[in-house]
Design a protein that fits this description.
This protein is mainly alpha-helical. The protein has 6 domains: 68 residues; 66 residues, no CATH class; 58 residues, no CATH class; 55 residues, no CATH class; 56 residues, no CATH class; 51 residues. Helix content is 61%, strand content 0%. The chain is built from 20 helices and no strands. The longest helix is centred in the first third of the chain and has 20 residues. It is flat.
Length: 424
Amino acid sequence: MPKTSKPSPHERTWNKRISQLKAYKRKHGNSNVPGQYAKNQALATWVKNVRMAKKHKTLAKQRIRELDAMGFVWSLRVRSVRRYDWEPMLAALVAFKKRYGHCNVFYEWNKPPGLGRWLRSARRRQKNGSLDPAQARQLEEVGGTRESQWQEMYSALVEYKKEHGDCEVFSDRPEDQELAKWVRKQWPLRLKNALSEDRIKQLDKIGFIWESVRKRRWERMYSALVEYKNKHGNSTVHPDSPEHRKLARWVHHQRRLRRSRLLGKRHQGKLDILGFDWGAPQGQQRQPWEEILEELIQYKEQYGTCDVSVTSKKHAKLARFVLRQKMAKRDGTLPKDREKRLKEIGFRWSMRAPKKKPTPKKPRSTQYGRWTEKELTFLREHWHTMTTSVLAKKLDRSPGAVANKASELGLSRRSSWFTKNAKA
């Protein structure tokens, strides 16, 4: 009876993966094992490698026929998979909307994998008329089409206006963030002629403000400042006020814009008419200039300079004062009397750090002078016990000068070593 040869390890692995793939197909109805199949990652990797081997023509024909017989899909086209998985993807979209309240699925969304890509493809096919009418109706009922999504956000804006009295939606509250994003997009869409006349009429009907968000916000905060002044008699909003923290930050921002010459003339004019106080409120006012100048004088008496390091934590306020004076002098906004006072104390106007003075080298007065008898005696005694560089330091001379003098005196380390050993 002929002996049967045992299958090789590769064949045993192949048969094992084929059995696992058949079990997967019986359970799921197809052999498209996902790349991140947690239950059997080895099978997912094997399926991927088999497709790559078929693509590079390195897979045996017998094994190709074996996989063809069980209906193995060699090329996974994304579009066919999306159409094939319509019902699961539609159910995932319904779950997404139930959880997040909208159908704005990111393209890279991977819970479940491919939902964002599937939704974009479905919307594109619905737009060009290639989507099945029944599927298009299902997608519209869910709110997944662009038109249904726009109408849904429009209805939310109508409800917002009924509650708040206007269409100015800001993202201060988490529940209004999606609606605020949608509202901000309508003005740029109209500028690009990407908004239909029907939608423009619908927004005009509810009193939608066709202006940029920044402009609306500035006008809103300005109106709040007018109300504050009518109530308190001034426009100095203190930052510690818990009721007007946003207004205080906005007021502070206007002061900073004016100091930086970035505030528009129209906005500055409106604030000037209101009697806006461009100075800082009490508690935020800077220390008087004369007091800081006295501190700078004391600093110079102690350290000998007016250049206060910006890295000094102890004198951080003084360093900022020095920097402001230099910048004001550079921009031509420093008053003449202050400039004169600073010149009197030796103030340095350059913005660059002062150059460090080079440390003077120790003079070698005897380097090129005549050798004394004491130096010659020291050289003879220690020539055989010290190196040339050590002797040069001891005698305050260069190593070359020491070596030359030793050669003149006939001092040789090699000959003296031989002589010493010969005597021994």
